[in-house]
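Q: Mind making up any chain with structure tokens?
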Amino acid sequence: MGENKAFIQIDGIPIIKRIHALFGGLFDEILIVTNQKGLYKALDAKIYKDIFTGAGVAGGLYTGLFFSSRPYSFCVAADMPFLNKAVIEYLISCMDDYDVIVPRTNDGLQPLHAIYSKNCVDALKRVIDEKKRRIIDIFPLVRTKVVDEVEFLSLDPNRKSFINVNTPEELDRVRQGRLGV
């Protein structure tokens, strides 16, 4: 994208501020994992640098769970401007005795819009040690519940929660209101 996606503005508000505002109403602890800590200091959040450099998203998730003071954490990418409170609350209601609660849309699993327990730390360390970078590599190693979109589609019929901004073309579509995922 040529810029830090967390600070891309949608309707005049940086994506990270949209996420932070939503999380502030849902959670009593907000953590940000980044290698550019200074950019986020204005946000009321605990900010951590990756424990394992070069470990990709698995390393970022490991760091967040490692430092979290809570048994469960809802984890998202910083480029998701339309997170939906009702969908998040529904996923929380599905926790039961699982280590991962991950939604599955028609596009597949959504591991960067999921809930993880502290029990995932060892599994993440294992996949990182094996030089794997994908979060889904831990799913067979822990108690994972997949929540199919039919269960939460009524809460987010257009599936906006799962839109992320990875390319200039996607950003243009989002800004023009063409939100097909």
The first strand starts at residue 9 and ends at 10. Residues 20 and 43 are 8 Å apart (CA to CA). The domain at 5-175 is CATH 3.90.550.10 (Spore Coat Polysaccharide Biosynthesis Protein SpsA; Chain A). Helices lie at 15-26, 56-67, 85-93, 120-129, 168-175.
